[in-house]
């Protein structure tokens, strides 16, 4: 006899950092089916952008995500620069790369700590948090803030890297090379951590392709995908970056939570190498193309068209598409696709055959950022959220495209 | 069980205490009374060189060009048409320093003041802080 029970994890749950609901179908302790239902933290940022000009929207896009805020800002800025045909001085590009990699280090360290906390390894969690403080201090020295840096602007960056800052960053790189390896060994050599993470939440390479996983989630399944290599932006053209896949370092890619942990840990070392190369190759010259904000605003008011920005955020590919209308100062429309959106669809696959106790770990294993992900919400006008079928969504999407083509013509 | 964590934890016993016990080492009997005497509180960690705190506004210098209103992402600045001056709602400010960058006469500057939490919304409105002597340059 088999009876299945439906158990919700979330929207509010101690194992989750952000509200999302996973309805798990359980046969005893084993998960036989899962359904992920987001929709608890939609904020309507795109709507707010429609009454703001691009300079104001920089700070709005920063607040899409607290951890990968610079990725979203840079993505938005690159989309605007793409449509307005702006160029960025080389020093500005290098400083942007620097902040991107610093952010990757801090995001991966935070995730590694939280993953330890999720399996109940609290001492390693505190160690991870302690390690992360150093990169936060450097970000604060460079930008003035620990999160939401406000460092990027159209055509460059707002603050320069001084020689003292470069020295502090080199000191930080040495600190991480020295102190991060013990943390890695503590977790990856621990038999209990191994038992909790090995073979849990498996996503095979074929499934990762079929469900279009991105970033460390896809790389842990053995896919060699990294936008920093396949479509270099900013200074990545000068600094080659090889995608990190577990088969290169550990023999085989199993696509489980331990592989995702290992990929992120190896990426921290990679980011340190990139940071060092950026500091070595930091060219002299201006770091912003246009210091006069009035001129920037005036040129953006004239600009018309659709621009794309796609970058490799710490969690995967981040895509922003922006449309500006000539003569209109405000952003006409703006589309954000955060990496979690692509990764979250593989959750039901990862849940298969695992135990209920592993569910929070599996949810956390893709480094979810639910507030990044929730970009739209459908209600029936009375405030009840409703599910839209695929056919209906496609129909609506096509109708909107036709409407816009009509409006633009 | 001896794991790799044990020597790490032993090392941490000898390390310096890093947390700044702010605003007081222990919860005082009355928080309101304790906050009324700032001298008795543990001072916060000093802010960095590029820290962006509460806005300073030199009202006499302001020419009322309204450019700061145009770039403020949080609509924290209000224009007073009768006086051709602005006022800043600090509770809305997101400390991006965009207004200090666009201000043609540089009457807006970021201060290093970070202790600005308040229950009174109206008290956190900045109308004039006078000419700035030592400003934290962004």
Give descriptors for this structure:
heterodimer, A: 409 residues, mainly alpha, Cytochrome-c3 Hydrogenase, chain B, three-stranded antiparallel β-sheet, globular, B: 138 residues, alpha+beta, Alpha-Beta Plaits, two-stranded antiparallel sheet, 5 strands, 18% helix, 12% strand, elongated
Give a brief outline of the structure.
In chain A, 52% of the residues lie in helices and 12% in strands. Chain A has 409 residues and is mainly alpha-helical.
SSE diagram, text form:
The complex is a heterodimer of chains A (about 400) and B (about 140).
Chain A: E1 5-9, E2 21-27, E3 30-37, H1 45-49, H2 54-62, H3 69-84, H4 90-118, H5 122-143, E4 152-153, E5 156-157, H6 163-188, H7 191-197, H8 205-210, H9 215-220, H10 227-230, H11 246-250, H12 257-281, H13 293-302, E6 305-313, E7 316-324, E8 331-337, H14 339-344, H15 347-351, H16 359-365, H17 370-373, H18 390-408
Chain B: H1 5-13, H2 31-36, E1 55-57, H3 67-71, E2 77-80, E3 85-89, H4 98-102, E4 108-110, E5 125-126
Antiparallel strand pairs in B: 1-4, 2-3, 3-5
CATH class of the domain at 49-138 in chain B: Alpha Beta
Query: Residue share in helices of chain A?
Result: 40-55%
Mean pLDDT of chain B: 84
**Pattern of helices and strands of chain B:** HHEHEEHEE
What does this entry look like structurally?
The complex is a heterodimer of chains A (409) and B (138). Chain A has 409 residues and is mainly α. Chain A has one domain (45-372): Cytochrome-c3 Hydrogenase, chain B. Chain A has helices spanning 45-49, 54-62, 69-84, 90-118, 122-143, 163-188, 191-197, 205-210, 215-220, 227-230, 246-250, 257-281, 293-302, 339-344, 347-351, 359-365, 370-373, 390-408; strands at 5-9, 21-27, 30-37, 152-153, 156-157, 305-313, 316-324, 331-337. Chain A has a three-stranded antiparallel β-sheet with strand order 1-2-3. A three-stranded antiparallel β-sheet of chain A has the order 6-7-8. Chain A has a two-stranded antiparallel sheet with strand order 4-5. In chain A, β7 (316-324) and β8 form a beta hairpin. The model of chain A has no long low-confidence stretch (mean pLDDT 90). By secondary structure, chain B is α+β, with helices and mostly antiparallel strands. Chain B is 18% helix and 12% strand. The longest helix of chain B is centred in the N-terminal third of the chain and has 9 residues, at 5-13. Chain B is elongated and about 70 Å long. Chain B starts with a helix and ends in a 12-residue tail after the last strand.
